[in-house]
Amino acid sequence: MISTLQKTIRPVWAVRGLHKSAVEVLKRPDPEDTVTASYGRFISEVKPQHLSSLVLHRSKRMVLDSIGVGLIGSTTDVFELALQHCQHMYAPDDISSVYGRRGSRLSPTLAAFVNGVATHSMDFDDTWHPATHPSGAVLPAVLALSDMMPNSKPSGPDFLLAFNVGIEIQGRLMRFSHEAHNIPKRFHPPSVVGTMGSAAACARLLSLDHSQCSHALAIAASLSGAPMANAATQSKPLHIGNASRLGLEAALLASRGLEASPLVLDAVAGVAGFDAFYEDYVPEPLESPNDGHVFLLEEQDMGFKRFPAHLGMHWVADAAASVHKLLVGLGPGTVSPSQVQDILLRVPKSKYINRPFPESEHEARHSFQFNACSALLDGEVTVQSFTPAALRRPDLLALLSRVHVEHPHDNPANFNSMYGEVQVTLVEGEILKGRCDTFYGHWRNPLTNESLRKKFRNNAGEVLRSEQVEGLIDVVGGLDTLGDCRDLLSQLQ
Amino acid sequence: MLCKGITESFGAAIHALNTTKLTDGVISRSKRMMLDTLGVGLIGSRTAVFNKALTYSQSFKSDERSSVWGKSQITLPPPYAAFVNGIAVHSMDFDDTWHPATHPSGAVLPALLALAEMLPSRPSGLDLLLAFNVGIEVQGRLMRFSREAFNIPERFHPPSVVGVMGSAAASAKLLALSPAECIHALAIAASSAGAPLANAATQTKPLHIGNAARRGLEAAQLAQMGLEGNPAILDIPSGFGVYYKDYSPSAMTVPASGDFKWMLEDQDIAFKRIPAHLGMHWVVDAALAARAKLENTARNFDLRQIRRVTLRVPPSKYVDCPLPSTEHQARHSFQFNASSALLDNKVTVSSFSEAQINRPALKELLSKVKVETPKDNQPSFDKMYCEVEIETDQGQSYAARCDTFYGHWRKPLSQEDLVDKFSVNASSVLCSEGVEGLIDVIGNMERVRECSILGSYLRLTSSQQEQCYSLRRL
User: Fold this and answer.
1) Which of A89, A227, A275 is nearest residue B79 as measured by Cβ atoms?
2) Three-state DSSP class for residue A341
């Protein structure tokens, strides 16, 4: 109706000088031409055949790693707390399984919540560029939703498609702003784009129509956004848990007909939509999957962590490990604080990972100083480096007191361009240096399949029997040809 | 990290406030808010958005159950009861509005009532009043941390920012959390704050209040279980400050002896007469006055003789909607509300039905409406005005201006009119025993032994005549 109006009036409006109200009707974009509508259409139209082999391969690695870190995460205090909260405030619901807890099932959004918390509980999950932890926000929701589907479970290809939609949408949204390219200062990215990714993935799995897909995203936008201040605290894992849960909720509400803003992704002056979360924001429409669309995962690989700490820690750990090797070569075979006079770290400027004396495991996972010193002492940082005992080691505390931090101008707070340098001055005066530009596990130097499986075995093996561990490796490996993802769903606890 | 002890002061204050600090003034004002909130929540339980949320929420199982307002047979897990009841309260944009701008009660009362019904400690009416006022006070304080909050919003919808914090504070109070736990309740809630304004004027807007209530309650419960967040969440810009462009927090202190100055005593609240955005109330009052002038002067006046209607309003994009197509848009449209007032000589609950929105006569009038935003008209509920000028085909002009509508905090609703609004709203859903019972309980809240009695009245729907009879026999 409106488009007809436009056609008849457009040629003469300049001449007639219409009332302001009618002119404003003309100025409003055609509902089909908005960025928001293009996203809705993409999600509803994309199919398994649109996934290339490279994208399938990379996303299967992400699924495996995400399950593994979720499983080991199910041994943490914060997971336990989240699980008890759900079991206490709600009753058991025989629908969606909880990672690593045989017989434990919850309502789908609650399962997505606790499994998401587990995934991010140790900061062990994948990291992308621009920065976010994409899988933890999406996989728990897709798994929970698959469990919920009454008669036939999704096929492996459909499952992988939904997962990849969730990842793709997150990547696309982050490219709307320059702000997103740097280590965050205001909103914790998983809480901003993660919820949207989860909503998109679930909308895809539910086969919602394009309008419902748009509304799912818009509803999710009102559930997005958590401040950075809660990173490095026990609440941080809830950002991923909530992203997963609320994105699923948004899709479920959209499937029931709930509607929201049709312009949520578009930039409308005076009324913020998704741009509320960014200082600079330039949205772009998403082309149809049939128009030569390439998934971002094809062009930008994922970073996997080798130890459970913020991504930035991996640079200083690798740099410090090389110094450790030098030290050990020089001396008695172990490193002692008595050898060390001074430690200098050259790292990017980022307040929330600059912690000279962390007081909790959460803070330790977000401390350049802590990770550098641990690697200097032990030659590596592992899961065990963050236990209460490890945090209080006298040797470690001694080293921590000797650390200084510099922020060179050429070291940007950006996971694509940063480096980490560790310079140790020995008491005898000798200076040992280590530098890392690209740690092993970074997208420029990806973990081999062997290394990834090893990490998975170590993680999953904490809670599952070895047959289950191997079973999961097999089923995820063959996910793109699996007829029914039931085999995957049944092996998570 | 600059830690000025502000969050710490809030934790201490929430813990320290007790019923002896409640003054007559704040009790009387907050009881009016509670009554109004229950009424709008009840009428809101018949909306489409409420039904969608209710159906969704019913998929959750739980041992603890709390009442759904206006439903005799349905109960929900407490967080979801808070969710749907909060949605009901905001579903028609009929709930209270404060200055700086937010809808404070809808974020707090549903959470408290849901919680009260499941607590073994069986909170009293005074306990409820205290917790409610804590929730309101915290919201008021947080909004004073920025200049941005004093104007009609553009980025985040205020209830989604401060509402969840108020709900967390109120719930923490009712749960009698320690000062440290109160701090963490606020920190956890901060990670649940912030919904973009774009969803105002859509069906999702009521969820901002529903989610504020639910997630604030959840934050308090998680804090009770020992979950921790950042204990400086209000102090630092990367904490609560992320929701504002300018941010300057200050501490909250409760004198050990002596009076506590509640913000509600200094700054009263506005109650709506029309289920629409607050700004609409000015334009409707002005339109009705202009229309009256027109009627007085011109006999046999025909609205079709109107050539143009000019509205002089403050600049605010999300309530500038020339041709609304949904009820949600209509509630957020200066043009629609002015036109409805001119056409019908009133704007009521029924003005926003699909049939009414689509009337050809209304659309015709809408096409003649022009909006101007004079420089002296500030987008602030404390300072704005609306002018409506009607120009007829004969070249006559009739204008009227409204600076303060009836119901605004400068011109509060009389108690009689407030109770009347409540009765009309509540009667659409409850039988008369339920309506009277609620007026009675709220009126005597300070003396009520168990505030969960409210739940029983909220369930006395008019289709359940047997329930009314059985209550009479008590």
Assistant:
1) A89
2) strand
Q: Touching check for B120 and chain A: CB below 8 Å?
A: no
* Contact (CB, 8 A) for B108 and B132: yes
pLDDT at A89: 86
Chain B residues lying within 8 Å of A120, measured CB to CB: none
Instruction: Name the closest residue on chain A to residue B230, using Cα atoms.
Output: A230
From the number of C-beta atoms within 10 Å of its C-beta (0-12, 13-18, 19+), residue B360 rates as exposed
pLDDT tens digits for range A107-134: 999 999 999 999 999 999 999 999 999 9
Residue A130: asked if its preceding bond is cis (omega within 30°), the reply is yes
DSSP B246: S
Are A268 and B198 within 8 A, CB to CB? yes
Q: Hey, is the C-beta of B20 within 8 angstroms of any chain A C-beta? A: no
Pairing state between β A431-436 and A420-426: antiparallel
In this complex, which of A233, A256, A263 lies closest to B230 when CB atoms are compared? A233
Asked if A107 lies within 8 A of B335 by C-beta distance, the reply is: no
Quick check: B214 and B111 in contact, CB under 8 A? yes
Tally the residues of chain B: 474
B371 Cβ under 8 Å from any chain A Cβ: yes
Instruction: Using a pLDDT cut of 70, give the percent of chain A over it.
Output: 94
Q: In Å, how far are A38, A246, A258, B239 from B55, measured between CA atoms? A: 29, 17, 11, 35
- ipTM of the shown complex: 0.88
Average pLDDT over residues B340-369: 95
Higher pLDDT, A310 or B469: A310
- Residue A223 and residue B211: Cβ atoms within 8 Å? yes
Strand boundaries in A188-228, DSSP class E: none
Distance from CA of B328 to the nearest CA of A (A): 10
Q: What is the pLDDT of residues A354-401, one digit of tens each?
A: 999 999 999 999 999 999 999 999 999 999 999 999 999 999 999 999
Closest CA to B446 of B13, B66, B34: B34
Determine which of A222, A252, A255, A278 to mutate to test the interface with B (most B C-beta atoms within 10 Å).
A222
Q: With contacts defined as CB-CB under 8 Å, which chain A residues touch B322? A: 20-21, 24-25
Rounded to the nearest 5 degrees, what angle is found at the Cα of A184, between the Cα atoms of A182 and A187? 140
**Quick one: tokens of B149?**
């909050």
Residues β-bridged to residue B75: B67
| A36 — pLDDT class (breaks 50, 70, 90) | very high
Instruction: Look at residue A13 in the predicted model and tell me its pLDDT.
Output: 34
Q: Average the pLDDT over each of A331-340, A387-396, B240-249 and give the range with the smallest value.
A: A331-340
Mean pLDDT confidence for B139-143: 98
- Residue A202's SS3 state is helix
Closest residue on chain A to B198 (Cα): A273
Element holding B230 (H helix, E strand): none
Residues of A in contact with B232 (CB under 8 A): 229
SS3 state at B386: strand
